[in-house]
Amino acid sequence: MIESKKKVxxxxxxxxxxxxxxxxxxxxxxxxxxTAQLMAPVFVATSATQQIVRENDLRSALxxxxxxxxLASTAGAASQPDLPKLDGTPFTLEINGQAQxxxxxxxxxxxxxxxxxxxxxxxxxxxxxxGNHIESILAQRAxxxxxxxxxxxxxxxxxxxxxxxxxxxVNSGRRRINSQTAPxxxxxxxxxxxxxxxxxxxxxxxxxxxxxxxxxxxxxxxxENSLRLR
Length: 230
Known about the structure:
It is globular and about 50 Å long. It is built from 6 helices and 6 strands. The protein has 2 domains: about 80 residues; about 120 residues, no CATH class. Helix 2 crosses helix 5.
């Protein structure tokens, strides 16, 4: 009888210990879950704050650069060499006491993948190593224009398409590019060689170029955010 009671007591202690351990495990899981839920908004808020700071910096730069852009658009780079160029060349601007890098790009200097002539798009894709995609891209844009450069890059079989946003656009509506504001990297691709702007332009079929007045300029910072000037 005594041994039986001892067994019952030991069994009850074992059950109690199991219940306590289970309760602690459940509490730990709940704590981790709650902590994770609480941490998520903090990270989101931090990211949102950084985004706001970047956008505010861009807007501050925008106000400073508007008159400069108008002057650069009408005067041209040759007559005003000290002004920021409209071909995506980086420059430094002090915003809120800090030196930051920006770039200005005339949209007419970029290849519009939705409206570029067959000749221009073919020349780019062939030198870019994706000439076999020209027919499928022309067919695709005829049915549904590309909404972003990222959509277009997915049609190519190249692994590195990270810099295409600096060379292409989807909304200039132009069949050709402005040779004076095209990024030097784009001219190097079309000419299949390096050199100065003047050297590259003479090596490229002139039918791919057309000089147009500057109508839209993209202001970018760290190649992440952009604001368009009209």
